[in-house]
Structure formats: C-alpha cells, structure tokens
C-alpha cells in the first residue's frame, strides 16, 4: 500500500489530473498539470520543485564511516572532504553494479548516503569489523530538488543567504522557515539546481516558504514525466530502466559493470581494496566490456518517412519510452535502446543504448526500430557524445 511523502498535503491539491505512480512505496506525481511540458519548461527556463523524498537515505556515522564507504564504493572515499558530495556506483564481488547514488560528507565522522534501492543490509554486511553505525533515515528525511536557471535566486530568497559560492557537488547547512535544512548542489536534471534535505516534520513549512519566495520566478512543481525528459537530455542513467541491479539480475545479460553503463571513470584502482575490485581489474585487462552505453541521435526524416508511408502526419510521444528497443547494424540486431524520446530543447529524438564496443565511437552509424501503428520500421541513428545537453550553468 502506497503512502504520501511528507509533502503530500501540499502536492495532492496541485495534482489536478490525479496522475500518481508508485515510487519505493510512496505516491509520486507523474504530472501536476494537464501536460508535463509546462513543468519541463519550468525546469529549463525558470524554477521547479520536485519531491524526491522516496529516495533511500542512510546516516552512516562513527570513526570508520569513511572506511566503510571506501570498502563499498568504486571511488576513493578518502578524498571526500566535509562539505563535499560525490556520485558513485557500488558493485558486488563480481564487479557488477548493485546501485548508484550520492554520498555527502556531513561531518568528520558522518555521511549521508542516498540510493534508489534499499541498501541497509548491503552496508551492514560490508561493515563487519568496523566501528560504524548505519541508520535508515529514509522516513525521517524529506527531500526536494529545486532545479532550473532561477533555482539559486529562489533559494537565496527563501534563506536570506548567498549561495553563489556553493560549488557543484558541495553542500552546506542553512535554515528555511526556521527549519534546519541541508542543501547540496546536486540534481538529476542536468541544470543549475539544488537538493534540500529536510526533517520530515518540517517539510510543509519548507515547501510553503520556497513557493512564497519563488512566485517572482515562475516556480512550479514538476512530476516524474518532466524529470524523465530532463534526465535523458542530461544522459543520466536510471536503475531498472537503463541497467539492472546485480541483486535483481535473473541472467548474465542483466548484470552490468560500471564500465558498461558509462561510469568507468568513477572506478579508482589507486586506492585500497573494495568490493568487486578484482573482477573490474580483470575486465580492464581483457580490453574492457563487450557492450558499452552510448548516446544516439535518431534521424527525424526517417521517422517522418515511416509515418508518410502510411499516409499519416509525423508524431512523436512527449514521454520518454523506457521499453527495450532493438538497435541494428549491418542488417542484424546488435544492441538495445533503453530510454528514448524527444528533446524539446535540442529539437531531436535521442536515446541511450547499449551496443558492442566496435560501435561505440562517436559518428558510428546504426539503426533503431521504430513502430508506427503496429508496423515495425527502422530509422537511422548516429552515436553522439554524452551528455546530449551540457549546460554550463549547472556548474556555474
């Protein structure tokens, strides 16, 4: 049975279409408005607030908090300074990704660990012999993503503080409406943005304060449909969509290493031992994985041609398609697209896809299956650099 997040009393009245989905046992709005394009535009042109409270959140504390992180994740946790945030995957002993998320160093001996899937048991199993406490605070900490070019202005208006000095992937504490809030310069949209970590009991007051401060900046709530479009444009992967957790994999094809899902640069072999290290070293020594994540730009004229062949005007869904879609080369299927859709800002059809290593070079020519009224066709696709959209303001 799904329940509302700590913001449900605020989000429910705004959800005029009653478009809800389930996310980790919580109600999550798919869209608030009749169509999600206005919410997408708020993220890209103004300011938007996204309730991301269903994320799993853990407080890891004690003298060995960093040692636990270093034992589990692929990055060098010893370099994580107080006030810093890192994004990282973590693997099982076979070098296959269990999950990915962020780790915030809140204090000398305290971390906040976020994840898409439950991780309490995994962290506890790997904490053997360490002086560390792991607490699941998922229900006690609400979270909001404040995203968009005016997000900093809204945050400054709500806090009365200057946030121009808070750099990308940094965090610091503040107050909103008298509530203690931890602010991180992070997000899942590829835009300028912040994530606010809030005591659950203070969530409604923080929501009200942000929207009062944001009225001058055309602030809007945004749902999962709009978020999905922005994360695709930013080339950001999603668990159980673009890859499968090693804990859920039913066959070898559903297991992915960091090097397969575009996170190889987040694997450090210049540190101590970590879960999956030997398997990952062997993978690199063998020349890397056989399949690689790439970005594809789909040929609009080919899409148009498939519609024209049936006497129909061209059309493309405004939603991101998360269903696996065949990718072809040399007349046969060689891979699959995992997320594809239309980018309003790029005016292009784009996709994340897995292809053999020989096709992962920028400029490689492929084809993607495209169906029109039940008739399957193929459209040309070109491998392009990720992310599709790289806004300088997200780091400014």
Structure commentary:
With 396 residues, the chain is of the alpha+beta class. The chain has three domains: 8-50 and 139-222, Gyrase A, domain 2; 56-137 and 257-289, Alpha-Beta Plaits, CATH 3.30.70.1400; 290-396, Aminomethyltransferase beta-barrel domains (Elongation Factor Tu (Ef-tu), domain 3, Beta Barrel). Helices cover 20% and strands 33% of the residues. The chain has nine helices and 19 strands. The strands form four sheets. A six-stranded mixed sheet has the order 10-11-12-9-3-13, sandwiched between helices. It is globular, with a radius of gyration of 21 Å. The mean pLDDT is 97.
Quick recap:
The chain is an alpha+beta fold and 396 residues long. Helices cover 20% and strands 33% of the residues.
CATH secondary-structure class of the largest domain: Alpha Beta
Question: Percentage of helical residues?
Answer: 10-25%
Count of distinct strands: 19
Structural class: alpha+beta
Which topology of the largest domain does CATH recognise? Gyrase A, domain 2
Q: Largest sheet, if any? A: 6 strands, mixed
By oligomeric state, this entry counts as: single chain
Order of helices and strands: HEEHEEHEEEHEEHEEEHEHHEHEEEEE
